[in-house]
Every structure is written in structure tokens, then in C-alpha cells.
């Protein structure tokens, strides 16, 4: 009876066990990185007057929109206008002196041609004309500069945009090129993020990033990482990342708005198997691999990480190998197996 029972059990063990066959597939893996930052204008500039003076008008405030060529501010032109008047008078005098010198040079040449003049007198007259012409050109240049200075008392918008900051006020005396307004151009937006210096961050260049505004209503947007700071900021311990927004609406309300972003950084390749394939061997992770003889072979593996319904393996199983999914809990080394999903 004992021998008979043992023989029956051996026969049953020899029958192939129906299990799930799963082909292990290699796949690119990545880690999702979530970012928080702000939306800023792609083109922005701080502007001031080319000439110093006292501000008499500030025609825009923070948040105001403007168009190219629009008058934004003005300084007192009185002193500069007086300088322009003086330069115009100097030019008129120089032109009159040049005309007189030209007439004198022409008379000296005529006298020399008739034989009643001298070469020395002609040369002296020509020299005086040359000096008068040079004085006229100098006066013209001074007048042009004075005219531009008067024109520069008006501060005009260099492009269409919005005022992001105002630092000048009427009555304030400002120096040359001292910033009084900060302007942002409409039509180009970028997202600025500060993120910890995580692994594989350098691979983010050129990667797409999904964007959603936090404190204003706007449709979801997409961006592309265009700049990664090479060094960690010593004060914040963060890395500055810039993403160009491709489909941002031309809405000035977006400037300065908080935004969240998400991107996926590739961390290499891994072999993907279902979570049902994972078992253990001496306390270490393992899977059952289907051999060429349709038997089971227990093999230790290296787990990269767990994902939704699958296990990502960094070692132990090669791409294209067949592992056992459902039914692996009934196996032992060398057990004959068959694919439960194969056509009968």
C-alpha cells in the first residue's frame, strides 16, 4: 500500500503543472518629479531715463498694460530745453561764420586768378574756411545731442507688455539710466522652479513638463526644460530650473502666478514582471523562470522598485525570458510546468 501510494504521488508530480507564462520585457523606467514655481515673462527689462532729472509725471502703475511707443513717464525738460536753445544759437552762429569764410575764400581765389592776389592770402582764407566748416559740424553734433536729450525726457514703451514694478515717483530726482519701471513683454512666458539637487536632474534638459496654475484659473499648459543652473544655490539649497511654456495664453494675469509642474526623469532600463511572479529564496527576492525543458528554475533577482501591478527588476532576468506568474506558489525546482494560457 505504501509503495502504491508513493507511485501515485510520483505520477501526479510528473504531470505538468498549469501555470501562467509571462514574457519578461525590458522597458525604460523613470521617476516622476513634482515641482512648484512661478510664471515669469520670457522678456523683461528695467528701464530709466537716459538723462538725469526730476520726474514730473509717472503715467503707469504696477499691473498696468501698455503698447509699444506709449508714453510711460516724463522728467522736467526745462534745463535740457535751455541747452537745446543754446546749441541752436551756437549752430546759427557757426553757419554764419562758415558762410563768411567761404565768401572770403572765394574772393581770395578770384584775386589770385586775376593776378592781383597772393597765394598766401588764398591759403589763409582756405584755412579759415576749413576751421569754420569743422566748427559747424561740431555745432550740428552738439545740437543733435541736445535734441535727443530733450526727446529722452519722455520715457516710452519699447514693446507691448505690462508693468511689473514701479520704483520712480513724481518729484523724485533720478540719475542717468536709474531704473524707474520694470516691464514684462506679453507673448512669452517661462516657469521658474526651485528643486532639490536630486539624482538624474541633469537629464531633465529638453524634457517636457506638464504645468497647472495654482492661484489663477487657466487651462493646463506644457513646457520644455530650457535651463538648469549648474550650481546649487547656497542660501536655499535648491537648483533653479527654467521651462519655456509653449501654449500659454496671452494673459498678463499669469505673470507672477504660482504654478505646479510634473516631469518624468529616465533612470535607465529595467525588466518588467507581474507582481504575482515575485517570490523569495532564502529571504531574498526571486522569480520562477521557465527553462527550455519546460521546468521551473528558481532565480534570485534584484528589485529596482514596485509599480502599479508590476515589479521592475534591475537584475536576475533578461529581456525575453519567460517567468511564471499565477501559480508560482505551487512550484519547486525542476517541476514540470505548462502554459495555462496555451491553445489546447
Beta-strand residue fraction? 35-45%
Tally of DSSP β-strands: 23
| Arrangement of strands in the largest sheet | 3-12-15-14-13-16
Q: Count of helices? A: 3
CATH T-level topology of the domain at 15-29 and 269-339: conserved putative lor/sdh protein from methanococcus maripaludis s2 fold
Helix content: 10-25%
Evaluate the radius of gyration. 42 Å
Assembly context of the chains = single chain
- In round numbers, the mean pLDDT is 85
Per CATH, the architecture of the domain at 15-29 and 269-339 is Beta Barrel
Element-by-element helix/strand order: HEEEEEEEHHEEEEEEEEEEEEEEEE
Tell me the name of the CATH class of the domain at 15-29 and 269-339: Mainly Beta
Brief summary:
The protein is of the alpha+beta class and 344 residues long.
Explain what the structure shows:
This protein is α+β, with helices and mostly antiparallel strands and 344 residues long. Among the domains are: 86 residues, conserved putative lor/sdh protein from methanococcus maripaludis s2 fold (Beta Barrel); 65 residues, Beta Barrel (OB fold (Dihydrolipoamide Acetyltransferase, E2P)), CATH 2.40.50.100; 74 residues, Helix Hairpins (Orthogonal Bundle). Helices cover 24% and strands 40% of the residues. It has 3 helices and 23 strands. The protein has a 6-stranded antiparallel beta barrel. A 4-stranded antiparallel β-sheet has the order 4-11-9-6, with no helix packed on it. It has a 4-stranded antiparallel β-sheet with strand order 8-7-5-10, with no helix packed on it. A hairpin with a 7-residue loop joins strand 13 and strand 14. Helix 2 packs antiparallel against helix 3. It is elongated, with a radius of gyration of 42 Å. The N terminus is likely disordered.
